[in-house]
Design goal:
This protein has about 725 residues and is α/β, with parallel strands linked by helices. It has 29 helices and 14 strands. The strands form 2 sheets. The chain has an 8-stranded mixed β-sheet, with helices on both faces. Helix 16 runs antiparallel to helix 20 and helix 20 packs antiparallel against helix 21.
């Protein structure tokens, strides 16, 4: 047998190992296991070595963790070092995985951190470390995204070894991993305290847990006095571009003190240099959509537990259902299928804690969320039981009715409130409508006709306006009838029967305030219009986003962030100085295609500025008039402003349904291959970015595109674009 024959025979024997389930020798199996284990061990050791090598190249590393406010705190800490002129990179994983970079004395720029298949892995930390090392960063700041104790120890005690760390708080969250109790959560977060480290924290309830762990590990634990946050005056907090939390701000200030910085300097510079996270509690500028509806949005999506949500609810002064029933309060609840415990918590929050005019459910697993809401509603109604003392029955039921009618904020309790509602719908004053309603019998159609008759002369009441007038009259008549039924039940002693009818009455009216958006891939601009279409015409609407920000809610939140950016660009344009005007015009041009409500915002700002400045210089007036002519002129193929917002609430058509059903399974197969390309492209962009081979704006656009495509729906979007 020659050498070639022996090679073929040996190859045949070894091929059995790969292509045959049987016939393998123990030696072959042992060698295969050795090769696989060796490769895994080599890969792990090699990446560990790369991480530690990159770590040694970075002079200062500041980490941060906690339950609430950690992403916003990282942004404030990054603002400190950006103001000092250091070259820095800050990684945060709040609503979206992002990193902020700044070169010497330059403005910070925000980038998406690409995650293959939108899944987090601790290995991404090594990639960011290498980016920081390649860009010769002076400082790296990072937010811990791990939950399990073993991963936290690897990140903190093996790879990063922070020079200084911060912990915001240890509120109960992720109880399925870190819990089940709040004490267990605090123990899990205490793993972020490194051996011999310096740690700053603002936790109040579980301070003893952190102190004991710090003592065992020889760490220095700094606790800023709690009264420091209370001493921050409103004018200081108003300097920040969003509703900043005082405790998180004091955490950043304590870090600055540790570095020897002046307090007055920090107050100014952090406000001037902070890059807000997408999920910060911020109210964005008002926009106007079809029907004269004026919408503003407060982003509370990053508060994904009860304590944070209720804190936002109070900070926005929405917790009093009797305060302003004229302005509609709409909750957009963004659900996630992979957060079932969180869905159950928010179902109970919607039912028991948030009194709104409308609840709009978006995202995934909406059937499950609706089921949890039904369970929470049944539990709430089951708690309505008559007191043991029969003498207290009447008072108890009167209080129950008053409370429940107040919680259903969309119901008109008095003729005065009905006059408000009808006056807003018809764009007339309430005084004009009130006499006609007061003289009208308690009949739905009679009330509708009486209100419609008060419309402005020559104005035809539309079908949409009639529909909302009828809804308002129906609610008013129902409340009045229900109150009368209670008085009759008190007189006849049939209060148990009325309570049973009240349970059904409340369930029906509460369910009428819940609206489910079935289209998971609905665009943010269309969702803005849809929210408006569900509210009466000519009404001011305050939208509050809650629960999550990923998935459907991400594009919706980004749409409002864009409104804020456009509004700031208009601040520059509406000045007498040509230089800021040019920067503002450049931003508007980079926005690309503008939506109808975006054009309306620009048009209103331009017209108001020209009206308030009749003696404006020619150059500045020319810039404003040029922009005004662009937003007044319709663009060819611009169908978006012609759409009826109410149609967005209708079920999708057959063609779209067929395309979605065919594209869904096909996309699952193709996405495995597409993700390989996206991951490779993202790695190349991030490497080129750290080496200065790609521009910042170009890198932002590419990384955002890759991130959006991996969230799904890209094949359906291609089908829709070709229709």
């Amino acid at each position: 047998m020659n050498i070639f024959d022996r090679f073929l025979e040996s190859w045949r024997d070894w091929s059995e190992l790969w292509f045959s389930p049987a016939g393998n020798t123990l030696l072959q199996l042992a060698l295969l296991v050795l090769v696989v284990v060796s490769w895994i061990a080599f890969s792990f050791i090699y990446r560990q070595w790369r991480a530690r090598r990159a770590r040694l190249k970075i002079p200062l590393i500041v980490g941060g963790w906690g339950t609430r406010g950690k992403s916003g705190t990282e942004r404030k800490k990054a603002a400190l070092f950006n103001a000092l002129g250091y070259r820095m990179i800050s990684k945060s994983t709040g609503c979206e995985a992002m990193f902020v970079t700044a070169h010497d004395y330059e403005e910070s720029r925000e980038y998406y951190l690409f995650r293959p298949h939108d899944k987090a892995t601790i290995w991404e930390q090594t990639n960011v470390l290498e980016i920081a090392a390649n860009m010769h960063a002076d400082v790296m700041l990072w937010e811990c995204m791990a939950l399990q104790a073993d991963y936290v120890k690897i990140l903190q005690q093996s790879w990063m070894t922070d020079d200084i760390s911060t912990i915001t708080n240890t509120y109960p969250d992720h109880e399925d991993i870190q819990g089940p109790s709040g004490f267990d959560v605090s123990e899990a977060i205490s793993n972020f305290i490194g051996n011999g480290a310096t740690v700053i924290h603002t936790e109040q309830n579980f301070q003893p847990v952190l102190r004991e762990v710090a003592r065992k590990r020889g760490a220095r634990l700094l606790e800023p006095p709690t009264e420091m946050a209370d001493l921050l005056t409103p004018d200081v907090l108003e300097r920040y571009p969003y509703n900043v939390h005082p405790k998180n701000l004091m955490l950043a200030f304590q870090l600055g003190k540790e570095l020897g910085l002046d307090e007055g300097w920090m107050i100014k510079e952090v406000a001037d240099h902070v890059v807000p996270d997408l999920g910060v509690l911020k109210t964005y500028p008002e926009v106007q959509v079809a029907g004269g509806r004026r919408l503003r949005f407060s982003n509370g999506c990053s508060a994904n537990e009860r304590a944070g949500t209720m804190n936002n609810w109070r900070r926005l002064r929405l917790d009093n259902p009797d305060a302003d029933r004229r302005e509609w309060t709409v909750m957009v609840v963004n659900n996630r299928a992979d957060r079932v415990p969180r869905s159950k918590v928010f179902a109970s929050i919607v039912v028991d804690d948030l009194a709104g005019h409308k609840f709009i459910l978006i995202g995934s697993n909406l059937n499950g969320l609706n089921g949890y809401i039904e369970e929470a509603l049944a539990a709430r109604l089951a708690r309505l039981q008559l007191p043991a003392d029969r003498g207290e029955h009447a008072t108890y039921l009167e209080n129950v009715l008053a409370r429940d009618v107040a919680n259903l904020r969309f119901l008109c309790r008095t003729v005065q409130e009905l006059a408000w509602r009808c006056g807003d719908i018809l764009a007339v004053s309430e005084e004009q409508v009130l006499p006609a309603l007061e003289s009208c019998p308690l009949d739905i159609e009679a009330l509708v006709q009486a209100a419609a008759s008060q419309a402005s002369p020559g104005v035809v009441v539309s079908d949409e306006e009639l529909r909302f007038l009828r809804d308002a009259a129906t609610g008013f008549v129902s409340v009045a009838t229900h109150k009368a039924a209670l008085l009759a039940a008190i007189q006849s002693g049939a209060m148990a029967g009325w309570l049973e009818s009240h349970r059904k009455w409340y369930r029906d009216w509460f369910n009428s305030s819940v609206y489910t958006v079935l289209d998971y891939y609905i665009k943010g601009a269309d969702l803005v219009r849809l929210v408006g279409s569900l509210c009466p015409p000519n009404t001011r609407v305050h939208i509050l986003g809650v629960q999550n920000i990923k998935g459907t809610g991400l594009d919706f939140a980004e749409r409002w962030v864009r409104q804020g950016d456009i509004d700031r660009a208009m601040d520059r344009i509406c000045t007498r100085d040509v230089s800021p005007q040019e920067k503002g015009m450049q931003f508007i041009k980079e926005c690309g295609k503008l939506e109808d409500f975006e054009k309306d915002l620009i048009r209103r700002r331009c017209e108001r500025f020209l009206e308030e400045n009749p003696s404006l210089e020619f150059g500045a007036r020319r810039v404003v008039n040029e922009l005004l002519s662009q937003v007044r002129t319709p663009v060819e193929g611009e169908e978006v402003s012609k759409l009826d917002p109410a149609k967005l609430a209708q079920p999708e058509g057959r063609l779209k349904t067929l395309a979605r059903r065919l594209a869904g399974p096909t996309e699952l197969v193709l996405d495995s291959f597409a993700s390989i390309f996206r991951a490779h492209k993202a790695r190349v962009v991030m490497k080129d970015l750290s080496n200065g081979r790609v521009g910042g704006k170009r890198a932002v656009a590419i990384l955002k595109e890759m991130t959006n495509k991996q969230k799904g729906g890209w094949l359906v979007a291609k089908f829709a674009a070709k229709k």
